[in-house]
Specification:
Elements (H helix, E strand, L loop, with lengths): L50 H4 L16 H4 L12 E4 L12 H17 L3 H15 L2 H8 L4 H8 L5 H4 L6 H6 L4 E5 L4 H11 L7 E3 L16 H11 L6 E5 L2 H8 L4 E5 L18 E3 L5 H7 L9
Parallel strand pairs: 1-2, 1-4, 2-3, 4-5, 5-6
């Protein structure tokens, strides 16, 4: 794991201007973030140190993590539900913590500045590229790597490194207890990079609650980078961790991801407590099985039957 300790602001290394024109404009949408890197998939449980052990180094592994074996060792068959309880797939930002207050604005500023420095474009053009690539591909770096020559490792490191991460995080009280009370396996599924996800979980004190983190580095196929809400990526991811669609419950703040994955037979929870008010209006969409403001309400959804596996209903 990389040890990321340098501050957010620095110019990208080995940046070269693209010789290709940017794609046609697309409308911007919401806070954008997420970036893949070239490190191969590693779906074994992450090794976390105590939050005070590695601070924002993002990499000094400890001995507190859970690890798990290959899917054949402990996972159910890919297509059939089991009686072991649900498998929770938690998004990270605006799901396990509130990212709209400080994290998303900082990431968006960092992405925009990186694009300015790497491509030699104006601030307005960089903002447009960031927003349009996120809208088109699900993560800004997917568009940047397809249309420009940038260093994805450097992009990840620069954009997702914060000297004051602890101060930027906002989460529900008793979050670790809330997660521990939920039955079944728990996995983080995020379009963010691995080191950033590990650092956030450690800072929140909830790293022990998760079997593993599936970050954007692990979503890549041999042909290309992928990210949520790519269906082929999720099929492969669930197969790799040995989760049947009928057992999975996706907890997300992004409705587009829930809509796409509901079609695969996954149960869906839309969490709105960390969203800006304007984004949480209009009631529960038809593709959402359960809508909550707080993670504390997840258990209620199980008991009420709202999250009952459709294959067993």
């Amino acid at each position: 794991m990389m040890n990321v300790s340098r501050p957010l602001r620095r110019r990208p290394q080995h940046a070269r201007r693209s010789s290709q024109a940017a794609p046609a404009p697309l409308p911007a949408r919401g806070p954008e973030y997420g970036a893949p890197a070239d490190r191969g998939p590693s779906l074994r449980g992450p090794s976390y140190g105590a939050p005070g052990d590695h601070g924002l180094g993002y990499g000094a592994p400890g001995d507190r993590a859970r690890s798990y074996g290959a899917p054949s060792d402990r996972a159910p068959g890919y297509g059939a539900p089991t009686l072991r309880g649900p498998v929770w797939l938690f998004d990270l930002d605006n799901t396990l913590h509130g990212a709209s207050r400080a994290i998303f604005p900082a990431i968006n500023r960092g992405m925009t500045q990186y694009i300015v420095d790497a491509l030699g474009v104006s601030l307005d053009v960089a903002n447009h590229l960031r927003a349009s690539y996120t809208h088109r591909y699900g993560a800004a770096l997917l568009g940047l790597t397809r249309h420009h020559r940038i260093d994805p490792h450097d992009f990840l490191k620069v954009v997702h490194t914060f000297d004051d991460l602890h101060a930027m995080l906002h989460a529900e009280r008793g979050l670790a207890r809330t997660l521990a009370a939920l039955p079944g396996r728990k996995i983080v599924l995020t379009n963010g990079p691995t080191d950033y996800a590990h650092a956030v979980l450690a800072a929140l004190g909830i790293e022990r609650q998760f079997e593993c983190v599936v970050a954007i580095e692990h979503m890549r196929t041999r042909e290309r980078w992928r990210a949520k809400p790519d269906s082929a990526m999720l099929r492969k991811t669930l197969r790799d961790v040995g989760v049947a669609f009928a057992d999975a419950i996706l907890v997300e703040d992004t409705r587009g991801h829930l809509k796409r994955y509901r079609r695969l037979g996954i149960r869906t929870v839309w969490i709105t407590g960390h969203l800006p008010t304007r984004m949480a209006r209009n009631g529960r969409p038809h593709y959402v099985d359960h809508c909550v403001r707080s993670l504390k309400s997840l258990g209620r959804g199980l008991h009420s039957g709202a999250l009952r596996s459709r294959s067993r209903a």
